[in-house]
Amino acid sequence: MTDAQSIDFQMIFAHAPVGLCVSEQRTIRACNQALAAMFGHTPASLDGQSLSVLYPSADEFERTGARIAPILNRQGLYSDERIMKRASGELFWCHVTGRALSRDDPHAAGIWTFEDLSSRRPVTAELTAREREVAALLVEGKTSKLIAKQLALSPRTVEMHRARLMKKFAAATSSELVNRLLGGQLA
Description:
The protein has 8 helices and 5 strands, in the order αββαααβββαααα. It has 2 domains: 113 residues, Beta-Lactamase; 53 residues, Arc Repressor Mutant, subunit A (Orthogonal Bundle). It is of the alpha+beta class. The chain has a 5-stranded antiparallel β-sheet. Helix 5 crosses helix 7.
């Protein structure tokens, strides 16, 4: 057994097979090569940047931060699947998991992992920022009522977004829509 003194944690962080990021106040303080490559950047170019550079829009960055803060306060851990943006502008599905180092101030410092889901879940339609948020919550199995509460919208507004998503994905039912959002191909 190797003792903890001989483990090179910086090397492990730098070469981990998943995207890793350490953040302070939603600013990237350190990231590994896997994260930088996933988003089309270099680690040095991301150092000191706001995490907003990884989001499709500034609104999504702000709303996501507001939505996850109470969860991080309560649980200390957060995980979801959402659409993110590469430096090239390409949108892709990403599994994001984070841990707040202080529950009292969840954005003060955190450790985040990012997994690119694009090989099994391509983004196949042009979606608005709100449609991307609704789609991500539908994939989690949330009802329109729960989505409305989480996004501070009316259930009717969520239903309108769901209807637009169904049209864009040529889905006849909600389960067909979720299947298509997950990258499934229906005949």
